[in-house]
Structure formats: structure tokens, C-alpha cells
Specification:
heterodimer, A: alpha+beta, Immunoglobulin-like, four-stranded antiparallel β-sheet, B: mainly alpha, Growth Hormone, Chain: A, 58% helix, globular, growth factor (chain B), IL7_sf (chain B), secreted (chain B)
């Protein structure tokens, strides 16, 4: 290392350097001075990357003042930055998470193979830091330690549990420590032996058992629904009995149960897994429901399509069927061809009415047309009978033949 | 005759010292676990949970940086849970007059301590319980300080109190677990 001017240093990384400023990767740079003395402003590091004969030069500057200790602190800080710039710290250190499974064993994990890149070591202790013990059963994922397994004899609840996770990579080591209360990390096993009892008054009673050593320290949750319901009902239960009043015997019920350590024995938020379900109700109802569903949604539409297809084929191929299904519209015009063609529309001739009957309907008298009009009223009222024409007389007569003029046509209303 | 008297009576004194209990518990509820269980579940647990929540509001990052060796740690010893609770509760009463701790925090801590000692019917050395507990009334209405007071600077006493509270809660959990059958 060379000092230039008053406060700038140049530093060369090379295998032949002295141990304190050695460029060997195995040397830990993290043991820097812990002095917190104020050393003034420092200029950010200016890496001067010149690889000449295996050497790299860094030039940095420290503040103007100060004591030798302050300068040394500044120098070591800059050297640390240089080292971290050359060898970045492992991109790691997820949080350590521990779960105590049914108070039988415990697993602590800190990541997965995809995220972890360093070598890990876990140490733990309960009371005294001098009694640190390394994990005896590491959980590995392709040669990377991702967790630690603790047996029951290594677990002590209701005492502060300390872990120290060390991650080393490229000569640098990072540490994470954490303190936990193991009674707050308990995850019980799922309840077992779910049993349903038929009670009076259409009431069901559900009971279960647990493998957790202290059943009185557990609280439970029951989840159930019937085959007619869409959503699950979830009920909290303190004991180990759940009663469901007013059940419908035509429905089919399904029950699940899970457990958690209650607030009196710990502060865990970990529920167990849901238990194996237990069912109650009419099995036939469920089967017939399933069959009816298939009939409605599959069988009937298919049968309808087949029948329709058969009919279409029959219609196309068999004229007899076509005629039955689509009868011809009757056309009566042929019956009247003789009337219009042969007899020229003479209905009587076509109908075969005798000639003398036809003649008898013809009138054989003539009659003058009598025009009747009303004159404006004068002093005396006798206008009508002064006309030269004889008064019209109302005589019942046969209705005139079609086309003939009727004398009573216009005076019908005057009678 | 006098020699015979002293020869016969002298060994009695060491015998009395040996037979007398070394650490006699000053708690009167040793064998009344059912009554303790009822009072804990119905009354005390709620105050303990409130105290734990208040403790969580106080910054604890600075407590992690402090040297753990300076903080006294209480252990909930096996088969001596009541004695451990007594020790923790009596120690927590020390913080009642610490002005560097927010008033709401230390009053609630004292309330829980007094509740613990009352449920277990225990006493403390130096009559600390008799001096403090009568002054600790129902918490909540009389104290008008807001949560801002709880965000005072972190100091050693706050860290000790938080540690004490955590130990007390854990010991109660352990005791409850043992007596629940």
C-alpha cells in the first residue's frame, strides 16, 4: 500500500501482499475495526481496475484530519468496500422458521435449493450461550443444507430458544440469530377417529380424538356442509364434542375437524391439517341424485338428438312418412273446372236446376220507375200526394235476381 | 448434670436447621390448582394478553442489540412453576417507579404482577406487594397517556421489563399446561 499526498492511498491486491491486506479470498475482511470515532467525510471508492501481473489497484481517499486510529478506521472501511465489490456477499439468508410438529419433532428451515447458494451451519442453545450445539441432523437438498431436524429430546419448551445460522461463501460469513419460544410454534396433528352419533330430536353429535399429549390445551374447529349447500360452515369448539341440531335425513352431510393450541397454553397461530372426513346421511339419495343428474344432462339430450335424426332420415327417404307428416293442401279448383270451363260460370246450369224453375224466377212484368222526392214544406203539408205518379206501394216481392235492378232499392228507407 | 443437659440438647439445634425448609414458599395456593386455573382463564389471561400487546408496541430492535448478559433472565423451573411465577411477578414490581418507562406500560405491568400474586396468594420480599398493589387500580380509565408515550427511547429498563413479561407469560402457559387434565 502506498500513500499519496496527504490522504489518499493506493492499494494493490496481490497474493504476495501482507496478510492484513492480502488478496486471498480465504481471508476474512469482515473483522474490521469497531471504532466509531468520527473520521470526517470520505470520498467513495474509485476502483481502478488494472490487471497487471495479477494485481488490481484501488485508489480511495480519507478525510483530512485526524488521528492515526481514525485514519486506520477509514482505511479498513474502504478496504472492506473493495473486498465486497470484488466478492459480493452471498445473496442469501432467508429467515429461519421452525415448526414443532405435535411436540414430537421439530423442523427449522431457512430456504430452498433454488434460493440458497452458500454453506450453512446452524447452532442452537437454550440458556447459556456457551452451550451452543450444532445441528445434528441437517436436511439437505442436493448437497445444500436447507434445514435442521430436532428430535424430541432436543426440544425444551417454555425456555427461550436461540438459533444462530451461519452462511459462508467465498471466504465471507454472514450470521443470523433469532430467539423463539417453542411453545408458540406447535402444530398439532389432525384429529382422528371422527364418529357421528344419532341423538334424539334430529340431533347429531360429532366426537373425535387427538394424538396431542395435552388434549385440554387444544381448541378445535369443525367444518361441515350438506349436499344441498354451496358453502362450508366453520364453527369453533373448545371441547371434543360438536352437536348439530335439526338435521335433515334426506340430506348428505360431510364433516371435517382441525385443532390448535389454545391461548392458555401458548400463542401459536398454527392450525393442524383438516382431518379425514366423516359423512352422514342417505347414501341412496346421493346416488339417485347422481343418476338423475346424468339422466338430465346426458341421456335425455342424446336420446332427443337420435330421435330427431331418425325422423329427418325417414322424412327424406320415405315419401309415405312425408305425406303423413306433411299432408298435401287440398285444392278444390278441379271440382269447379266444369262450372267455369263447360258452363261459363252458369251456376244453375252446372247445378242442374231445371229450366222451368229458372224461368219462373224471371219477372214477367215491366214496371215504370217511380222517382220519389220530397219537396220543401210549405203552409200545408201535402206534398207527397200531389205528384202525378201513383203513390208507391209496398209489396212484398222476391228478392231480385243478381244483376237486376230493384225498384225498391233507393226507397227502402222511405216506407 | 449440666454437662448431660447440654450434651442432650446441643445436637437438637443443628437438627432443627437441617429439618427446617430452606426455601419455604410464601404462596398459599400450592395445591389449589383448580382455583388457580379458573382465575387464570377467566380473569388474568386477558390482562396478560393486553400487557403483551403493549410490550410489543415498544421498540425491541434496540433490545436485540443490547448485551443479553446484562439482562436478568428468569426461568420457569420444572416442578417449581409457582415459585418461578412469584419470583417473576415480584421482580416486575421493581419497574413500577421507573420513570424512563412509559406510565401506561409500567402500570399495566404492575397490575399483572399484582394479579399474579393475588391469584397465587404469594408475597414478596420487602413488602413490595403491600406497598405497590393497593395503588394499582383498575387500569385504563385513569391513565390518559396515549400510545405515543410508549414509543419512548429504548433503554435497558424497557428491555428488562419486556424480557420479564415474556418469561411470565411463558411460565403461565407452562403452568396451565401442567394443571390442565
Amino acid at each position: 500500500m502506498h500513500r499519496k499526498g496527504d490522504s489518499s492511498f493506493s492499494f494493490h491486491l496481490a497474493p504476495s501482499s501482507q496478510p492484513l491486506f492480502s488478496g486471498k479470498k480465504s481471508t476474512s475482511w469482515l473483522a474490521v475495526s469497531k471504532t466509531t470515532a468520527f473520521c470526517g467525510n470520505t470520498v467513495p471508492l474509485y476502483p481502478w481496475t488494472s490487471w497487471a501481473a495479477g494485481k488490481m489497484s484501488f485508489i480511495f481517499m480519507c478525510g483530512n484530519s485526524q488521528s492515526a486510529a481514525c485514519l486506520l478506521h477509514c482505511v479498513t472501511l474502504q478496504l472492506r468496500k473493495a473486498w465486497l465489490w470484488l466478492f459480493p456477499a452471498p445473496a442469501v439468508l432467508a429467515e429461519v422458521k421452525c415448526v414443532l410438529f405435535n411436540e414430537e419433532y421439530m423442523n427449522c428451515t431457512w430456504g430452498s435449493r433454488e434460493t440458497l447458494k452458500a454453506n450453512y451451519s446452524l447452532y442452537y442453545w437454550y440458556r447459556n450461550t456457551s452451550n451452543k450445539v450444532e445441528c445434528k441432523h441437517y436436511r439437505q437438498d442436493q448437497d445444500i443444507r436447507v434445514g435442521c431436524h430436532f428430535n424430541q429430546n432436543e426440544i425444551i419448551q417454555f425456555q427461550p430458544f436461540h438459533v444462530l445460522l451461519k452462511a459462508s461463501m467465498g471466504g465471507s460469513t454472514l450470521e443470523i440469530s433469532k430467539r423463539m419460544e417453542l411453545q408458540d410454534l406447535v402444530k398439532p396433528d389432525a384429529p382422528v377417529n371422527l364418529t357421528i352419533h344419532n341423538m334424539s330430536n334430529n340431533q347429531l353429535q360429532l366426537t373425535w380424538a387427538t394424538t396431542y399429549p395435552k388434549a385440554k390445551c387444544l381448541e378445535h374447529a369443525v367444518k361441515y356442509k350438506s349436499n344441498k349447500d354451496t358453502d362450508w360452515m366453520e364453527i369453533s369448539v373448545n371441547g371434543d364434542v360438536f352437536s348439530l341440531p335439526s338435521v335433515d335425513y334426506k340430506k348428505f352431510y360431510t364433516f371435517y375437524v382441525r385443532s390448535k393450541v389454545n391461548k392458555y397454553c401458548g400463542r401459536t397461530q398454527l392450525w393442524s391439517e383438516w382431518s379425514v372426513p366423516v359423512v352422514w346421511g342417505s347414501n341412496s339419495t346421493s346416488k339417485s341424485t347422481v343418476h338423475w343428474f346424468w339422466i338430465h344432462t346426458v341421456l335425455i339430450p342424446i336420446a332427443s338428438c337420435v330421435i330427431l335424426l331418425v325422423l329427418v332420415i325417414l322424412l327424406v327417404r320415405m315419401e309415405r312418412v312425408w305425406v303423413i307428416l306433411m299432408p298435401r293442401i287440398p285444392n278444390p279448383s278441379k271440382n269447379f273446372d266444369e262450372l267455369f270451363i263447360t258452363h261459363n260460370g252458369n251456376f244453375q246450369e252446372w247445378a242442374g236446376v231445371p229450366k222451368d224453375v229458372v224461368e219462373s224466377f224471371k219477372p214477367n212484368y215491366s214496371e215504370n220507375i217511380c222517382y220519389v222526392s220530397e219537396l220543401p214544406p210549405k203552409d200545408s203539408y201535402d206534398p207527397l200526394w200531389e205528384s202525378s205518379n201513383p203513390p208507391p206501394s209496398v209489396m212484398p216481392s222476391a228478392s231480385p235476381a243478381p244483376g237486376e235492378h230493384s225498384p225498391y232499392k233507393n226507397s227502402y228507407g222511405r216506407v | 448434670m449440666f454437662h448431660a443437659f447440654f450434651r442432650s440438647t446441643l445436637p437438637v439445634l443443628p437438627l432443627l436447621l437441617v429439618l427446617s425448609p430452606v426455601n419455604s414458599s410464601s404462596c398459599a395456593m400450592e395445591n389449589k390448582t383448580t382455583e388457580i386455573h379458573v382465575k387464570y382463564e377467566n380473569i388474568l389471561i386477558h390482562d396478560i394478553n393486553e400487557l403483551v400487546n403493549i410490550s410489543a408496541q415498544n421498540r425491541d430492535r434496540c433490545c436485540k442489540n443490547k448485551n443479553d448478559k446484562n439482562i436478568k433472565v428468569f426461568f420457569c423451573n420444572d416442578t417449581q412453576e409457582i415459585e418461578s411465577l412469584q419470583s417473576m411477578a415480584c421482580n416486575m414490581l421493581r419497574f413500577f417507579h421507573k420513570q424512563r418507562i412509559s406510565k401506561a406500560f409500567r402500570w399495566k405491568a404492575a397490575f399483572v404482577s399484582c394479579g399474579t400474586l393475588q391469584v397465587l396468594k404469594c408475597k414478596c420480599e420487602g413488602h413490595r406487594k403491600e406497598k405497590i398493589c393497593p395503588h394499582v387500580n383498575v387500569f385504563g380509565k385513569e391513565d390518559t397517556e396515549t400510545g405515543e408515550q410508549s414509543r419512548k427511547k429504548c433503554n435497558q429498563e424497557v428491555c428488562e421489563l419486556k424480557e420479564n413479561i415474556s418469561s411470565l407469560r411463558s411460565c403461565w402457559n407452562k403452568f396451565e399446561k401442567i394443571i390442565s387434565r
